[in-house]
Design a protein that fits this description.
With 449 residues, the protein is α/β, with parallel strands linked by helices. It has one domain: Glycosidases (TIM Barrel, Alpha-Beta Barrel), CATH 3.20.20.80. It contains 14 helices and 15 strands. Strands 2-3-4-5-6-8-11-12 form an eight-stranded parallel β-barrel, surrounded by four helices. It has a three-stranded mixed beta sheet with strand order 7-9-10, covered by helices on one side. Strand 13 and strand 14 form a beta hairpin. The longest helix has 24 residues. The chain is globular, with a radius of gyration of 21 Å. The chain binds beta-D-fucopyranose (FCB). Beta-D-fucopyranose (FCB) binds next to loops. The site of beta-D-fucopyranose has 12 residues, from loops.
Length: 449
């Protein structure tokens, strides 16, 4: 048995739009994901989050499942359009009251609430004013952070401002795969969105510190370790370029307080709209960094590629891939943690998401057996334990996700849960991986395989 340190936090993660449903209940305003998912052709089979896992109404039942699992922490996000349906004001008391009840019920069950303020569901009215392209949004976000943390700051001890700025910027404004679905190939929009997300983060951090002084404050980043496809000089150079862009560009503003100097000039007029003083706010020290780890990037040189990086992603023939077509590569977690620790020295790290989509189906007795997910989790936890044994300050682990849920543009076609959701009845069926995780939590350790 590989033991984790005493006090290591075992959690599960989710986000508001992916599970809550009840999109018109108790005064919630429209979000960009409502608008996007209701636009024909944007999501698989036209799926929307209108009902999702109906968690808004079933949260007490879901917390019972968490308690039975032995969960010590639950990471969820607040839906901004429930709190400030018009983006700015007035405050919607019924929306705040929902999160109040959620937090209280978690605390009563002995589960520590870890809150993310933004997991992609911007109020539509703010997008109508330019959304993340409009610099004023940073003040709107700081106001929203103020309202929420005044109300919950006595009980919430871990606040994250944003989930995955990279996805907000790249998928929202460059590829257009996610809301608000812009496809600006000059990169100017992605860079502006990224910069304003970070500015909003920088403005919210002191607000959270003031309203919730006993809490720890951080951000969730998706940084994938990058490897060259072959040992050739061209591929190694391609991997380096890709890494500087991927980790450097999207993570260093907040981890180092600067955009990488070698990348900035590549953008010319499409560079981020920096103003004096921005980077001091953006780079203010954090208490923790949340890392969402699923896979790695394998990259080759490609002089014909349309993008300025001249790289392409490569499939590894000998590897196993998940239902998302993401390579299963547990050793990448070790390489990622080693790199983050060495380059950025965060005080504390949480694995804020880790898990896999598999094509799970109930058997004839209605049980859901998911041995590939068990193997995935087992392998990643084993690597994590080794990293911690080498003094990398990882304080907790959050499996993505407790429930199968709305997987953004993939709709309900991808199942990440350790609990199966039958969307026609909303019945929850704990999978084999739920029992596996229960054993891990009980033992505070994982068997060596
Ligand atoms: C992450 C997102 C999360 C979920 C997982 C599978 O990028 O943060 O909402 O979609 O991927």
């Amino acid at each position: 048995m590989l033991q984790f340190p005493p006090g290591f936090v075992w959690g599960a993660a989710a986000s508001a739009y992916q599970i809550e449903g009840a999109v018109k209940t108790d005064g919630r305003g429209e979000s960009i994901w409502d608008r996007f998912s209701h636009t024909p052709g944007k999501t698989f089979n036209g799926a929307t989050g209108d009902v999702a896992c109906d968690h808004y109404r079933r949260f007490a039942e879901d917390i019972r499942l968490m308690a039975e699992l032995g969960l010590q922490a639950y990471r969820f996000s607040i839906a901004w359009p429930r709190i400030l349906p018009d983006g700015k004001g007035p405050i919607n008391e019924r929306g705040l009251a929902f999160y109040d009840r959620l937090v209280d019920t978690l605390c009563q069950a002995g589960i520590d609430p870890h809150v993310a303020l933004y997991h992609w569901d911007l109020p539509q009215v703010l997008d109508d004013e330019g959304g993340w392209l409009n610099r004023e949004i940073a003040d709107r976000f700081a106001h929203y952070a103020d309202v929420v943390s005044r109300r919950l700051g006595d009980r919430v001890k871990h606040w994250a401002t944003f989930n995955e700025p990279l996805c907000i910027a790249l998928l929202g404004y460059f590829t257009g795969e996610q809301a608000p679905g812009h496809r600006d190939q000059t990169f100017a929009e992605a860079n502006a969105a990224l910069h304003h997300v970070y500015l909003a983060h920088g403005k919210a951090v002191p607000v959270l510190r003031a309203n919730s002084p006993a809490s720890k404050i951080g951000i969730m980043l998706n940084i994938y370790p990058v490897y060259p496809a072959t040992d050739s000089e061209a591929d190694r150079a391609a991997a380096f370029r890709f890494e500087r862009f991927h980790t450097g560009w999207f993570a260093e503003p907040v981890l180092k307080g600067a955009y990488p100097a070698e990348v900035f000039p590549l953008f010319g007029p499409a560079a981020p709209p920096l103003q004096p003083g921005d980077m001091e706010l953006i780079g203010a020290p954090l208490d923790f960094v949340g890392l969402n780890y699923y896979s790695r990037m394998v990259v080759a040189d490609d002089p014909t590629a349309p993008d300025p990086l001249k790289t392409k992603m490569v499939h590894v023939a000998s590897s196993e891939y998940t239902d998302m077509d993401w390579e299963i590569y547990p050793a990448g977690l070790r390489d990622l943690l080693t790199m983050i620790d060495r380059e950025y020295h965060p005080q504390e790290i949480y694995i804020a998401e880790n898990g896999c989509a598999m094509p799970d189906v109930p058997d004839s007795q209605g049980r859901v057996h998911d041995p590939r997910r068990v193997a995935y989790l087992q392998a990643h936890l084993q690597v994590l334990q080794q990293a911690i044994a080498q003094d990398i300050p990882v304080k907790g682990y959050f499996v993505w996700s407790l429930l199968d849920n709305f997987e953004w543009s993939f709709g309900y076609s991808k199942r990440f849960g350790i609990v199966y959701v039958d969307y026609t009845t909303q019945r929850r069926i704990p999978k084999t991986s739920y029992r596996f995780y229960q054993d891990v939590i009980r033992a505070n350790g994982v068997a060596e395989v």
